[in-house]
Amino acid sequence: MKILLIGSGGREHALAWSISGSALTESLVMAPGSDAMAALGRCAEVAADDLDGLLALAEAERPDLVVVGPEAPLVAGLVDRLEAAGIPAFGPSAAAAQLEGSKAFAREACARFGIHQPGFTVCTDIGSARAAIAATGGACVIKADGLAAGKGVVVADTVAEAEGAATEMLDGRFGDAGATLLVEERITGPEASLFALVDGADVLFMGSAQDHKRVFDGDKGPNTGGMGAVSPSPRLTDALQQQVMDEIVRPLAHGMADEGTPYRGILYVGLMLTEDGPQVIEFNCRLGDPEAQVILPRLRSDLVAAMLATIEGTLGHVSLRWDDRSAVTVVMAAEGYPGAYEKGTVISGTKAAEASDDVMLFHAGTKIDETGTVTAHGGRVLAVTGLGNDAGKARATAYAAVDNIDWPGGFCRRDIAAG
Ligand code: AMP
Ligand code: GLY
After folding, report:
1. pLDDT tens for residues 235-254?
2. Residue 252 and residue 309 share a domain
């Protein structure tokens, strides 16, 4: 089969690695891909958010399957447009991708389907936001409704802090994404992420992970896209995993299908494991980054076959095999990230770092020139994944590989999967 993969980050490098390893894949085209991904297929210079360009590329290439990595083209309706052109695509429709594109849509859907979640109020003016904040006593979470690149969430302790965040959002700090906001009850507990394939009706567990969102050790500093992850999640026991599939994923899939917006693709469920059981923090309509870099190396079954079954509605006949080992990925980022950072700094030692079979190096933001010199061209630049018999051994493998990399312009957290 010919596969077209959309995206260029570390998650897409991991997807390209899995797709190119599938017995079903004859050729792989990536838009836009990256220098590192070019080792696995052919790159086409079309940006992941250029829907017209991607459609034209797909019509010219006529792939047997399009795999969409990032959320923006999904929320903007790329899969709908590809399907209308008769090109099979893996990922939800724009209507179903609202689960990530609108936090109010997701909360209201869960409320209709009886899914366990924190209390919430949807507000479009400061008066109703103030009333909702006052009702929580100040311990609440203020969220911009739309996509805000992970930055549209403020966990508040006091009424003043919550009102400040609500005012800023309604004043347009996140553009249209913040024109509607949610005031949520603040819940507590460890976090975990569960992934599931959903084919409209059937659902299939697709791994668990735990990411580390803060930039510095000890969960200090601002939130980032993710500085590292471990899979399986050490906190999501088999029983909890089953409970999340039965009480969250399945009712959601059935409810969406019943309402005429069936979800097809991979569903990312962000959870808080509270004393009253797992509750939904958020949904994403795609694999996580860097969660893909720990989930996919553990998948023993054919990813492309599972994606095809998801599109065809035959997931009920599929079971997935997993490597029993754990995977840990450590993100190496440019000094300054998530703020301003320099581009073009030289990274050496990547070959030595990935010499072991138990190590995979996924490039998130590098360039590689004709001489093989690797330079940094992004905030999150490399995800270094190690496998091991338990999380501790996987962590040791990942950090040993990190220590082979010489990059004076970069840094990483030293406590990924440590606790
Ligand atoms: P989100 O972008 O919705 O995943 O939120 C980002 C982070 O904010 C989450 O990973 C949680 O740590 C925190 N958070 C979000 N919603 C809540 C909530 N209702 N109660 C407590 N913490 C929350
Ligand atoms: N690592 C968080 C995300 O992909 O949304």
Report:
1. 999 999 999 999 999 999 99
2. yes
Task: Report the nearest atom of ligand 2 relative to the CA of 291.
Answer: 1
Same domain for 164 and 245?
no
245 CB-contact burial (10 Å; exposed 0-12 / middle 13-18 / buried 19+): middle
In our burial notation (b when 16+ CB lie closer than 10 A, e otherwise), range 295-331 reads bbbbbeebbbebbbbbbeeebeebebeeeebbbbbbb
Domain range enclosing 42? 2-93
CA distances in angstroms from 400 to 167, 330, 397, 414, listed in the order given: 46, 11, 5, 11
Coil, strand or helix: which one is 242?
helix
Number of H helices, E strands in the chain: 14, 23
Contact 257, 200 (CB under 8 A): yes
Write the residue with the smallest CA distance to atom 1 of ligand 1: 282
- DSSP for 315-342, written as a single string: GGG----B-SSEEEEEEEEETTTTS---
Q: Residue 413 C-alpha to ligand 2 middle, in angstroms?
A: 17
pLDDT in tens, 350-407: 999 999 999 999 999 999 999 999 999 999 999 999 999 999 999 999 999 999 999 9
Between strands 89-90 and 65-68, the pairing is parallel
* Atom number in ligand 1 closest to CA 184: 19
The alpha carbon of 71 and the centre of ligand 2 are apart by a number of angstroms equal to 10
* Amino acid in position 264: R
Spatial CA neighbour of 132 closest among 87, 165, 103, 101? 165
Q: Check pLDDT > 80 for residue 78.
A: yes
Q: Cβ distance 58 to 5 under 8 Å? A: no
Same domain? 331 vs 396: yes
CA 242 to chain centre: 21
Q: Whose CA is nearest to atom 3 of ligand 2?
A: 288
Kindly report, residue by residue over 263-288, the tens digit of the pLDDT.
Answer: 999 999 999 999 999 999 999 999 99
Q: Span 43-53, mean pLDDT?
A: 98
At residue 92, the pLDDT reads 98
Kindly report the CATH number assigned to the domain that includes residue 84. Answer: 3.40.50.20
Domain count, the chain: 4
